[in-house]
Amino acid sequence: MATHNEIELNKTNFDSEVIKSDKPVLVDFWAAWCAPCRALAPTIEELAEEMGDSAKIGKVDTDSNQELAMQYGIRSIPTVMIFNKGEVVEQFIGVQPKSVLKDKLQYYAGVPA
Description:
The protein is α/β, with parallel strands linked by helices. It has helices at about 15-20, 35-50, 65-70, 100-110; strands at about 5-10, 25-30, 55-60, 80-85, 85-95. It has one domain: Glutaredoxin. The chain has four helices and five strands. Strand 2, helix 2 and strand 3 form a beta-alpha-beta unit.
């Protein structure tokens, strides 16, 4: 579930919020039943707080949005993708340290590390 700084993404808003975004977007593909996804959730929430307006953070519930998951070839969750200028520029499968995700997101956002 998305927090107030995270965008709950679905097929209706994915294009406008991610593909057409003028900021880099970190997208977390997850599911409620997935224990590693739940373990990654606090990291994603912290990133949403820390990145502020320099990037967007979104979440795709793969159970509710199977079409989006298939479109992006999601076979394992959690999968985190970073989109920049409408393209996937980074992909991480499994739980990742916050520092790895933040460094990449800052790079695409042009924010000094």
